[in-house]
Amino acid sequence: MKNNFILTLKEQLSNRKEIVIIPHKNPDGDALGSCLGLKHFFDLMGHSCSVISPNEYPEFLEWIPGQEQIIKYNKSEEESEKLLLEADLIFTLDFNSLSRIKPMDEVIDNCRAIKVMIDHHEQPDDYADLMYSDPSLGSTCEMVYNLIEALDVSLINKTIATCIYTGIMTDSGSFRFKSTTGVTHSIVSNLLDMGINHTQIHINIYDTYSFGRLQLLGKALTNLVKVEPLNAVYITLSQKELTQFDFKKGDTEGFVNYGLSLDGIKFAVILIENTQEKIIKMSFRSKGEFNVNQFARKHFNGGGHHNAAGGVSYENLEMTTQKVHETILQYKDQLK
Ligand code: 5GP
Ligand code: MN
Fold it and tell me: Do residues 202 and 63 make contact, with C-beta atoms less than 8 angstroms apart?
């Protein structure tokens, strides 16, 4: 965190401010945990703070403290726009390109507020007045902890700790990814000392599958294809298959990782058809050197991190699958 960033923020927060915090579209545990952790902190500082999500999020996140107060832009456009236009400060958390909050990005352009980016994805865009961007860190929640520590660590309580722990846990793959450091664990140690129920947090996120979701996982695994002779696999799920298993938002979360659990596999992709939005949403995961952020940016309108990224295709499932297969074959040197 740069000195200038924290000094300017301290000055801005020295009197009561109207604040809006925004996560990316289809927010995950890190996006919601960081937004809500920061919201509780600003509330305790005496500011007036709202969280506006571009859209809904999965049921397995519908327990994070304060989530019931989140305003959904796609459901409450007028209320959201009023708050955004009146805000003094707008914090954008866990994304670094305004394309990730479409169609809310158009409103942001017209706001007088100071825009603050807190994010850990690679290659940030240049829309924010104040930036705390650090791709070496495993989660935006870890960054929110650092910010709170720099502002007033005495205000951290069990509620804030629960929000922050959630995002650190989900974005680190339960503390196993490379970006998990001794510092991450020492932050987690402080959070545990606040009395959070980490066992229950894990259960809430990972052990709340519906019957349909587990069967959909079975279908996804049946659909897995290996791109011979390379160490790469992909999974497809058509809209018909999703509907057959009563798909709900978030049900496919984590499915792509099963591809990487195969011995020797370095790259795994999942392609998910969404006929309503007329898109194929993709997730890319890798182990080791293969850079999926670059792969997603170059070929599939996306981005993310070195080992975890996402992207989108506007062609149909069949054509997108073929393109994925052919594109992977171009990387034979890196994926053999
Ligand atoms: P997931 O595959 O779990 O949706 O996302 C993996 C990572 O890539 C996350 O950090 C997520 O924020 C990022 N990501 C997912 N989809 C997109 C996308 O369409 N564009 C960009 N730039 N990043 C994405
Ligand atoms: Mn994140």
Answer: no
